[in-house]
Amino acid sequence: MRSILVTGGAGFIGANFVHFLIAETAVQVINLDKLTYAGNLDTLAPLRGNGRHVFIEGDIGDRDLVRRLLRDYRVDAVVNFAAESHVDRSIEGPAAFIETNVVGTFNLLDCARAYWAGLGVAGKAGFRFLQVSTDEVYGSLGPTGSFTETTPYAPNSPYAASKAAADHLVRAWHHTYDLPVLTTNCSNNYGPYQFPEKLIPLVILKALRGERLPIYGDGSNVRDWLYVTDHCRAIWQVLEAGRPGEVYGVGGASERTNLQVVTTLCELLDELLPHSPYRPHGQLKEFVADRPGHDRRYAIDAHKLRSELGWKPQEHFESGLRRTLVWYLEHQIWCERVMDGSYRGERLGFPP
Ligand code: NAD
Ligand code: DAU
């Protein structure tokens, strides 16, 4: 049985990927996660007792642990989701972003290289290191055009800069040491298990409590939304059939302004909660001071992934948003438990 080391598999996308691997493939999953505020074992509860899923609490920066996992589980591929992922937190405290996203990725790469060098010919040829990256490394777009795999890096936030640094390390480990790496740069994800500091779950949970829905600036910043399972499928296809050393852009071709996203959510809430005392939920919208350095617009041209690997998103934004809202309405205990007391929905990344 093939064995995949998934890092950050108790977080939003990593956990969705782990669920996808267990449901759709026959691989064994070694799930290494530090369980920061963003990592939650509740998200993995449906896998309890599943012999194909092994959870290890630990840090990608722990050299001995990573070496041991690679060797003991005869790992065939590493998929690196582990990261500090929230832009607003990176504005308040960038150090953890450098530690995990840059130094942690370096550690994983270096351990993977040493392990890979000791494999036999077939093991070496089949091994992959897949870096899960973001479209934010490319900076910000004007009103037209999209990011492609050849767009120069121009990261604007500490988060984006840390991811860009990690991507450069991944690239260098391929060019210098021949490590068979793959990089995916994806646009904004949404769906089940997203920590409620990010726009969509934050708005849902605040609206349920009748709290103000903070829209940064004038709400006209644009994000290109992709349902998380479509991202997971893209990563799997790249892992299976991507060419080592290559980069693949992943995006939903679903650009919306933040104001459109919040307005659609409010309309869905009105429809699904006809007895809510907060209807119409649109009255809760509040324009607040903008995020410092707020990137104007992201959009990914996923032509390469579509034409080379036959990937295309299966979920439309409006139906995916409805599914996501229904999921949050049905999993309010999950929401309460992941908000462990350290984060209560307050504004991050902006001086009081
Ligand atoms: P998340 O914050 O929900 O989850 C991150 C996970 O990594 C958590 O479970 C956390 O405990 C774990 N982690 C953090 N530091 C660690 C360390 N040092 N060692 C081991 N585990 C550690 O993030 P997410 O939104 O699921 O993003 C996952 C990855 O995908 C990140 O690399 C992010 O940059 C990338 N990405 C995210 C999006 C998005 O829209 N969320 C889009 C494109 C790319
Ligand atoms: O593009 C991919 C990136 O998408 C990932 O690499 C990041 O890990 C992920 O967090 C996400 O980054 P964003 O900064 O785009 O996501 P966030 O949900 O924080 O914000 C989405 C947009 O909504 C952004 O333009 C800022 C705005 N926003 C956000 C919050 C939290 C608001 O208007 N109000 C808010 O309260």
Q: How helical, in percent, are the residues?
A: 40-55%
Number of strands: 12
Ligands, ions, cofactors: nicotinamide-adenine-dinucleotide, 2'deoxy-thymidine-5'-diphospho-alpha-D-glucose
What is the CATH superfamily of one domain? NAD(P)-binding Rossmann-like Domain
Largest sheet: 7 strands, parallel
CATH topology of one domain: Rossmann fold
Under the CATH scheme, the architecture of one domain is 3-Layer(aba) Sandwich
User: What is the residue-mean pLDDT, rounded to a whole number?
Assistant: 97
Q: Looking across the biggest beta sheet, what order are the strands in?
A: 3-2-1-4-5-6-10
- Class inferred from helices and paired strands: alpha/beta
Instruction: Provide a count of the helices.
Output: 12
* CATH class term of one domain: Alpha Beta
- The value of Rg in angstroms is 20 Å
Order of SSEs, N→C? Answer: EHEEHEHHHEHEEHEEHEEHEHHH
| Structural shape | globular
Supply database-style keywords:
352 residues; alpha/beta; Rossmann fold; seven-stranded parallel beta sheet; three-stranded mixed beta sheet; binds nicotinamide-adenine-dinucleotide; binds 2'deoxy-thymidine-5'-diphospho-alpha-D-glucose
Describe the structure.
46% of the residues are buried. The strands form three sheets. This protein has a seven-stranded parallel beta sheet with strand order 3-2-1-4-5-6-10, with helices on both faces. Strands 7-9-11 form a three-stranded mixed beta sheet. The mean pLDDT is 97. It is built from twelve helices and twelve strands. It has helices at 12-24, 63-72, 87-92, 95-117, 121-126, 158-177, 199-208, 228-241, 258-272, 303-309, 317-330, 332-338; strands at residues 3-7, 28-33, 53-57, 77-80, 128-134, 181-186, 188-190, 213-216, 222-227, 247-250, 255-257, 285-288. The protein is globular and about 65 Å long. The chain is an alpha/beta fold. The chain starts with a strand and ends in a 14-residue tail after the last helix. β5 (128-134), α6 (158-177) and β6 form a beta-alpha-beta unit. The chain has a domain at 3-191 and 225-254 and 296-316: Rossmann fold (3-Layer(aba) Sandwich). The site of 2'deoxy-thymidine-5'-diphospho-alpha-D-glucose has 19 residues, from α7 and β8.
